[in-house]
Amino acid sequence: MVALAPRIPAPSVVARHLFLRRSRWRWEEIAFWLIAAASFFLFPGHHVLITQALISGLFVVSLDLLLGYSGIASMGHAAFFGIGAYTAGILAQQGWGDPLLGLIGGAIVAGAFGALCSLLVARLHGAALLTVTLGIGLLCYELANKWSSLTGGDDGLQGMIVQPVLGLFAFDIDGNVGFIYAFVVIFIFYLLARRLVNSPFGLALTGIRENIRRVPALGISVRFQLMMAFTISAAVAGVAGALLAETTQYVALEVLSFDRSISVLIMLVLGGIGNLVGGMVGAMVFIVARDQLAAVNPVYWNFWLGLILCVVVMSGAGGIVGFLRRLGDRIGNGR
Question: What angle do CA 315, 319, 325 make, to 5 degrees?
């Protein structure tokens, strides 16, 4: 009797199985988005604050695509956020105030600038990479400061007229429309980011992060992959900046500041690097904690925020989301 050879699944079937397994939603992701949606009803007087936290979360996700999945550290990521904000703001100031047009414009301009910067960034590593990205951020800040006829300089960009969303829903002073508009846009881009990191392109980026020297043996162009990652990350950051400009109808010079670049890095570490929902959680915790601590102690709130960051980092790898996952696994295992 002839023994039959085991049936080997086709490569496409295996790839699809791995994709479905990697892209499966975890409980902390579902919990975060349910809580974020419920906050519209639970905290009616804080819609503006929560909207800014969600926008910061999308900004953190853009940085996570670089640092968490590609291994590219950036100290000037606020440059792309600010470019997106100024693009949407200038369009609205010049009579092109459709919100969707502002988002598209912010993504295109920031992405184009990111593609240009990626020609240099993809060639660098270590301290040289940090120095160049820091320099890009500082140059953009000084350019916006000096070009006051376009950006408003220290006074900020004013006179924006943002049209109603889809021509139907006008932005209100309570931030209700801004909250819903930002929530929908951010959730869509979060889904796109999840799809990206679980795709073959995302796996290639992970391979580059883990061992950049072995990836070329698979026929993957490291420089091209990093350039694409940097461009996409810049475009997503531009969308976040455009959302901030449209929901506040004002663009301050601070959107390009070094402090914003550092803050987004802190949010990422706080929530968890290499985990998209970690960026959202880290931004939410950081913004809310900063607001509450500043109200309690306007002088020394930075001390308490730094203490919280130290406790989270020392509690183990993965930030807040990593801690929650380990806690959930222990509860699930009955420990």
Answer: 90
Q: What is the CATH number of the domain that holds 203?
A: 1.10.3470
Cα distance between residue 305 and residue 248, in whole Å: 25
Indicate the pTM of the whole model.
Answer: 0.89
pLDDT at 19 over 60: no
> Which sign, positive or negative, has the C-alpha torsion 169, 255, 280, 275?
positive
CB count in 10 Å sphere of residue 135: 13
Residue type, 206: T
- In the block, tokens 């881009």 appear at 189
- Look at residue 22 and tell me if it is in a domain: no
Q: Which two tokens stand for residue 5?
A: 């050879």
What tens digit of pLDDT does each residue of 172-220 get? 888 889 999 999 999 999 999 999 998 888 888 888 887 777 877 777 8
For 49-108, the pLDDT digits (tens) are 999 999 999 999 999 999 888 888 888 899 999 999 999 999 998 888 899 999 999 999
Helices (H), 7-46: 11-22, 27-42
Q: What is the pLDDT of residue 108?
A: 95
User: Minimal CA–CA distance to 25: which of 314, 276, 257?
Assistant: 276
Give domain status of residue 3, yes or no: no
Q: How far apart are CA 140 and CA 82, in angstroms?
A: 9
Specify burial of residue 153 (Cβ count, 10 A radius: 0-12, 13-18, 19+).
middle
Residue 241 CA to residue 230 CA, distance in Å, equals 16
Domain count, the chain: 1
